[in-house]
């Protein structure tokens, strides 16, 4: 059982002497067995947040707790035992697999690194995991280029699973895939969750996928969580003006439901310091929004919001 | 009404392989036709073939592309240069690579105008500022002198649209125009393109893999699979009851199709296998993945047959079903 608790997390990029907090004070929790969606537009910091939780990027501030133990400041040796418990699946099934390694080597390496099992046991484990993600046993002897996009994403998932983690951070795992393949991969992730008791932090810009696949959703805008709610609640009563605009922008595959889309002005841009960072695009902004940054607070059971109007 | 563009038996191939295997479709004046399919189905190659901008090695091997009394498949390079940008224009997926990074935005749009119209430099500049304003660029006079890297992705796509409509074309081909954009920006850009279509009376060939985009912005849809047309229909009829098993599978596999669907209560419908599974087989390209396949499907690729007004399907099983219903109704 693994519980992830993130508190006040900041990740800072410094470019040309200017510091930008790509993740700017994020707190969240993923309970054992839970699927939490993280949605937002490109540049909002959702991938940076995922990589920081994985400790692939170093946080500037805040804590990342796994069952209460803070890993935010651990060095690589101290971090080592925690890496097994939390793994990541990446978006691009082409760029994230080493083209010179056979699938067998690629899946066996994490086991070797963590000193798990003898050679024969490791090979058996690789065979098990291939079967588990729906790939044939002979895949172990082949190279990534011999597989289609959907099959490569199965390999990416197999690699994340081989160490038997409890939490998987999925960063846009189906965005690069065709529609008919997306459904195959989502069904696989559902099966794995049920059979292995996994929890997921599921990062995506695709709201339809998030709606289908997650239990609870966090909406991110410019480094902050602006709204969090259960999936049904969020779609029934989205409260933040950004969430509402985002949901209204999704084109429904139903020509009978053609409607005037809520016009959201402009694009995601860094607002000047102070105040709500959505105010320049917000149709409801008023004077208080320019001076006071709204804090994320609970407005109903399980529903939190960062907006002065709530 | 005579169609604006009519494609007849179009075959496009590389020396080693045929990509598009003889397709027929038309575009009416002023309508939006969506061309849908998954990667590798031939939709982009078809679009590039229409305006003869095929990649190195690819060529039109057979068929006709009739447009304004001319066959574009055999038109001379000079004739094509006069048509491109003036009568038919193209909007590509990635506006960063489609724009020249070392020329100002204004100059690039003005270049299109000056290539096709006898217009002075000063008049062209005035016209470009109007166009930038038309596509919703704030402070167009100042932005005229900016470079592509000064613009965000959504703004660059607005610039591409300004360039595409500069000479008031009859047809705009938009190849995945919003795939690289965020969903809130996608809605802005497609609403803009749709508004201009109405205002300027042009037709749009919208190439996309997103069924939501089709439902919201197209009048008719053509579904491609493995270089052939699987189904052609008005959007209303298509989304109400797609007739090709592949189209049904796509809609079933799409997570947005049933709003209330959740992983705890419903499993997504999968289309088993992949496009490659039928490579080299003589029959229907979807046969190996099709839940309804019968032995007759393996003989030859099915022809595109009418099943209702404006609705055509390339499926042996569906054609037989329609024929049987027809016989029952009239027998």
From TrEMBL, chain A:
Family of the protein in this entry: Belongs to the ABC transporter superfamily.
GO molecular function: ATP binding
Protein name as it appears in the record: ATP-binding cassette domain-containing protein
Subcellular location: Cell inner membrane
Principal subcellular localization: membrane
Domain of life: Bacteria
Membrane topology: Peripheral membrane protein
Keywords, in A-Z order: ATP-binding, Nucleotide-binding, Transport
Domain ABC transporter: start-end pairs: 4-247
Transmembrane segments: none
TrEMBL record, chain B:
Pfam families (UniProt xref): ABC_tran (PF00005), oligo_HPY (PF08352)
Protein's membrane topology: Peripheral membrane protein
Origin: domain of life: Bacteria
Stretches assigned to the ABC transporter domain: 5-251
GO terms assigned for molecular function: ATP binding
Keyword Secreted in record: no
Keyword Nucleotidyltransferase: no
Localization annotation: Cell inner membrane
CDD domains: ABC_NikE_OppD_transporters
Keywords for the protein's UniProt record, in alphabetical order: ATP-binding, Cell membrane, Membrane, Nucleotide-binding, Transport
NCBIfam families assigned to the protein according to its UniProt record, in alphabetical order: oligo_HPY
Recorded family membership: Belongs to the ABC transporter superfamily.
Annotated protein name in UniProt: ABC transporter ATP-binding protein
Source organism: Roseomonas alba
């Amino acid at each position: 059982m693994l519980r992830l608790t993130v508190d006040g997390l900041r990740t800072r990029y410094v470019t040309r002497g200017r510091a930008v907090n790509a993740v700017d004070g994020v707190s969240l929790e993923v309970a054992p067995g839970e699927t939490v969606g993280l949605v937002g537009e490109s540049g909002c910091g959702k991938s940076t947040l995922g990589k920081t939780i994985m400790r692939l990027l170093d946080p500037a501030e805040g804590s990342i707790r796994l069952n209460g133990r803070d890993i935010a400041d651990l060095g690589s040796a101290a971090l080592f035992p925690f890496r097994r418990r939390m793994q990541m699946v990446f978006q691009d099934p082409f760029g994230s697999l080493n083209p010179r390694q056979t699938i067998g080597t690629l899946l066996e390496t994490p086991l070797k690194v963590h000193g798990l099992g003898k050679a024969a046991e490791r090979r058996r484990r690789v065979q098990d995991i291939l079967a588990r993600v729906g790939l044939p046993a002979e895949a172990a002897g082949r190279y990534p280029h011999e597989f289609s996009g959907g099959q490569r994403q199965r390999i990416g998932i197999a690699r994340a699973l081989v160490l038997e983690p409890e939490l998987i951070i999925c960063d846009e795992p189906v965005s690069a895939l065709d529609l008919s393949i997306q459904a195959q991969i989502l069904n696989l992730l559902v099966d794995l969750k049920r059979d292995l008791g996994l929890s997921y932090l599921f990062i995506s810009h695709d709201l339809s996928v998030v709606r289908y696949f997650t239990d609870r959703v966090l909406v991110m805008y410019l480094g902050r969580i602006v709204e969090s709610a259960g999936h049904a609640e969020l779609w029934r009563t989205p409260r933040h003006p950004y969430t509402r605009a985002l949901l209204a922008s999704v084109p429904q595959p139903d020509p009978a439901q053609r409607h005037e889309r809520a016009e959201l002005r402009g694009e995601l841009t860094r607002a000047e310091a102070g105040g709500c960072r959505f105010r320049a695009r917000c149709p409801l902004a008023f004077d208080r929004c320019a001076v006071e940054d709204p804090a994320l607070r609970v407005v109903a059971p399980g529903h939190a919001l960062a907006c002065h109007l709530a | 009404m005579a169609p604006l563009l009519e494609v007849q038996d179009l075959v496009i191939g590389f020396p080693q392989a045929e990509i598009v295997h003889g397709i027929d479709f038309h575009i009416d004046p002023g309508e939006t036709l969506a061309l849908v399919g998954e990667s590798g189905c031939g939709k982009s190659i078809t679009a590039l073939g229409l305006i003869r901008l095929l990649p190195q090695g690819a060529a039109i091997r057979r068929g006709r592309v009739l447009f304004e009394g001319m066959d574009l498949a055999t038109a001379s390079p000079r004739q094509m240069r006069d048509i491109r940008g003036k009568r038919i224009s193209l909007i590509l997926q990635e506006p960063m690579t489609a724009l020249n990074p070392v020329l100002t935005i204004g100059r690039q749009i003005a270049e299109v105008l000056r290539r096709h119209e006898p217009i002075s430099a000063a008049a062209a500049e005035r016209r470009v500022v109007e166009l930038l304003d038309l596509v919703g660029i704030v402070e167009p006079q100042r932005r005229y002198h900016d470079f592509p890297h000064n613009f965000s992705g959504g703004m660059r796509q607005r610039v591409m649209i300004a360039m595409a409509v500069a000479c008031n074309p009859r047809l705009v081909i938009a190849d995945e125009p919003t795939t690289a954009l965020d969903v809130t920006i996608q809605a802005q850009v497609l609403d803009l393109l749709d508004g201009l279509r109405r205002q300027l009376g042009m037709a749009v060939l919208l190439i996309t893999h997103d069924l939501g985009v089709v439902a919201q912005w197209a009048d008719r849809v053509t579904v491609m699979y493995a270089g052939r047309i699987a189904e052609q229909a008005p959007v209303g009829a298509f989304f109400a009851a797609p007739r090709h098993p592949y189209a049904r599978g796509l809609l079933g596999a799409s997570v947005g199709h049933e709003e209330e669907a959740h992983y705890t209560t419903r499993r997504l419908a999968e289309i088993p296998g992949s496009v490659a599974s039928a490579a080299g087989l003589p029959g229907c390209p979807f046969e190996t993945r099709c839940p309804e396949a019968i032995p007759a499907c393996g003989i030859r690729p099915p022809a595109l047959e009418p099943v209702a007004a404006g609705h055509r399907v390339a499926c042996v099983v569906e054609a037989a079903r329609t024929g049987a219903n027809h016989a029952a109704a009239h027998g």
